[in-house]
Fold each of these.
Amino acid sequence: MAPITEVEGRRVALSNLEKVLYPATGFTKAEVLHYYATVAGVLLPHLRDRPVSFLRYPDGPDGQVFFTKNVPPGTPEWVTTAEVPRSDGPARMVLVQDLPSLMWAANLVTEFHTPQWVAPAPAEADRLVFDLDPGPPATVVQCCEVALWLRERLAADGIGACAKTSGAKGLHLLAGVRGASSERVSEYAKTLAVEAERALPRLVVHRMTRSLRPGKVFVDWSQNAARKTTATPYTLRARPEPAVSAPVTWEEVADCGSPEQLVFRAGDLAPRLTDYGDLLSALFDGDAAGRLPPA
């Protein structure tokens, strides 16, 4: 039987704590849970009220990896859920609202993926996202060049952007927005991706077509669609090492000269939080959220 621990008055079963999930470093499930407890203060605001899609890897990244969108079997009754409309009919999904539900979800061994809207209004976006994905031999270094161009372009429209690593190969740009539908944000993001390709034709591609992507950065604007999700800030990723989708400063983006400079692992986050706090905190400032220009 899994040991039971009490988290803020809730009983949470934690299983297989000594199991090694990241063989390259010997990082165990207990360390995964410790990591999420350490970053809970900054992670939870990015999860709150957003239906979570779990990318589960219970036997580590080399084992079975699968998405779970509906409420998993055995979910405690105290975990908050919400009915979410989908094209194939409404579904009930988990909302990770507090530390107990975060620890319960982390025990499932998961990447957290969230949409650019809060329940129960998928048609109304409050965030804009670009996923910058490098096609080898391009790396995150080239993603940083594109990110700086997009930052200036967004600023020209009065929209402030923040950056984070994807936790894999690329970079994510996020911005707070208001007064726009998910459909309108998608249209706007596509317009900027096309502009980026025209301005940086040797560096950027805005279409997903694989044959176009070698050596270029794919500016994925499509994750603004209401049905899409993006790796949540501070989530661990199912990679060979316990890599994190970590917020970064614009100075770090501008100074990036090698891919390793923007690789952050679980153990790196506590000192970064001491130094910087949540570098994405501007996303919660409703007064600072940008309004998209008219279509």
Amino acid sequence: MSTPSVADLVATLRQQGFVVARNFASPSDVQALRAAALHDLEHAIAPIEYEADLKYPGAPASRDAAGGLTVRRLLDAYGRGPRFRQWATQPALAEVLRAYYGGRAPVLSTVHHNCIMTKHPMYGSLTGWHQDIRYWSFSEQDLVSCWLALGPETPANGGLFFLPGSHAAAYEAERFDGQKFFRDDLPANQEWIARAVSPELAAGDVVFFHCRTLHAAQQNRSQAVKLSLVHTYYPEDCHPLPGSRSASRPGVPLG
């Protein structure tokens, strides 16, 4: 990837809180990662988070209900094998993140995201507007996530929606509900939500987005499971707060 392209990606990420990098992953990488993800999904390779565990809108009421074993996330992607480790630490990712962090080396969080996101028809839930930083504990709030599409992503199959510029806004606590979702019943919030965009992704496209960028996803109205691979990074001089969940496992420095 050329330096001007990296500079453009970083400038857009800083301005709007997210940026799409088209064809970031090669077709061979996508094929290998998708095959490995489908294998682990088919064989229910732990650790797994189920839709019924979170109880978001549209999810089964319990694991014993119809669709109760619908997978939401295959956790610990980095620990699932060499293909996932290679992707999460590859030089092209490190180049973008190092540029964003002004030359500081990026570190992969093994606690937050670090998963294969699945979105199933019928029992895949709706995810309301939220900022990822809501449950994370770090010395600074400048984490960036990398979301790789392992197939097409559109609003119809549960693709991501973003609110441009929301990463730089200051919101009062009452703008969020008890679970720290951005309330869609408030006129001030509705003004923001009206600006939502949903970039359509092809297999191999990547979205970099800031941990404070408000984003959401609808249910999957297609006939196929949607698969995405997502990891989160922070700069080397940013640290998870001692005693927090964020500090429960060590990060992986990128060279």
